[in-house]
Amino acid sequence: MAAVLTALAVACAIGAWRLTSARWPWRAPRSAILLWQSLGVTWGLATVGAMLAYALEPYGEGVVYGLHAFADSAISFGMGLGLIQPYDLPRVAALVAGLTLLAVLVAILLGAGAQTLRARRRHRALLSLIARDDPGVPGVRVVDHPGAAAYCLPGLRSEVVVSAGTLSLLHPDELRAVLAHETAHVRERHDLVLLPFAALRWALPWLRVVRDAHSSVALLVEMAADDRARRYCSPRRLATALLRFGTAGAVPAPNGALGAAGEQVMARVNRLIKPGAELPRRFRYSLVTFSVLLSASAPLLWIYPG
Question: In whole angstroms, what is the distance from residue 258 CA to residue 251 CA?
Fold first, then answer.
């Protein structure tokens, strides 16, 4: 079992590395985002599971049931009823490493989530003091700042924010396109998609594959929001708005927010102006099915008894 989980973890790492340089995900960003999520979840569970499976192999009951058997053995050892297993040093080291890695991954994710929530809470408090409503853009908060800025603060009380500089910079159609883009971020909760990748990048900034994975998913999130905005406006209007943001020197979105400028603006502009053919529906359905099966593989191997 340990060998199978190790092979699964290596396959996920290789798949993520190859996916960072692929361009076909631009033709189906939502399906590609799902694949990225399944690769990340499976890699984490398979890596931890490989260590635990090796450590708990003497019990012959797999990972989940092996942990239960280990707990029973530890309790018996504490009561003086026998030896605790696994009792050889390599297996004890693997058990400690696996549990530690699991705790670290969970702690990183929870820590990043807590930090993001704090940043959003502070920014909402600031907006309550400096932002205003504008009848020309109902439902949008306006900040009196000359720079170009447009972003959303996702959450239970989601807000879309634009600057006064944005209102003077963009034509009405372009502004409508930008607001549709930000609304897509809010509705599809792209912040939750990015959170685990941002957390890994914060924890492992020296790993190129982690940095590239975060950049790839961030770009796909922006492209998915662009696709949603295209339903309500002309793609060229959105592309023009992005170019105006770029030439005006757009203000970066605050921590915890998703901005309109986003990642790799020129790649998005080219995609909007010269959209390639979408991936065939059959391929997209196959990709979704594969992602679901991949996500289920590691948990199934965890509970496999032996």
Answer: 12
Q: For the CA atoms of the chain, what is the radius of gyration?
A: 24
Residue type, 52: L
Asked if residues 221 and 194 have their Cβ atoms less than 8 Å apart, the reply is: yes
Note the pLDDT tens digit of each residue in 72-101: 776 665 544 445 555 678 888 888 899 999
The range of the structural domain enclosing residue 245 comes to 2-276+284-303
User: What single-letter DSSP state applies at residue 149?
Assistant: -
206: left (phi over 0), alpha (psi -120 to 50) or beta: alpha
Distances (CA, A) of 152 to 14, 88, 265: 34, 54, 17
Give mean pLDDT, residues 150-158: 84
* Count of the separate structural domains present in the chain: 1
Q: Report how far residue 144's alpha carbon sits from residue 256's, in angstroms, rounded to the nearest whole number.
A: 21
Q: Which two tokens stand for residue 213?
A: 């994975």
Q: 70-101 burial, b for 16+ CB within 10 Å, e for fewer?
A: beebeeeeeeeeeeebbeeeebeebbebbeee
- What pLDDT, in 10s, does the model give residues 209-218? 888 899 899 9
Structure tokens at 61: 């009951």
> What is the reported pLDDT for 291?
92
132: left (phi over 0), alpha (psi -120 to 50) or beta: beta
Say how far residue 216 (Cα) sits from the centre of its chain: 10
Q: How far apart are the first and last CA of the chain?
A: 7
pLDDT, average across residues 103-132 = 88
- Beta-sheet strand order (sheet of 159-163): 131-133, 141-143, 159-163, 150-153, 258-259
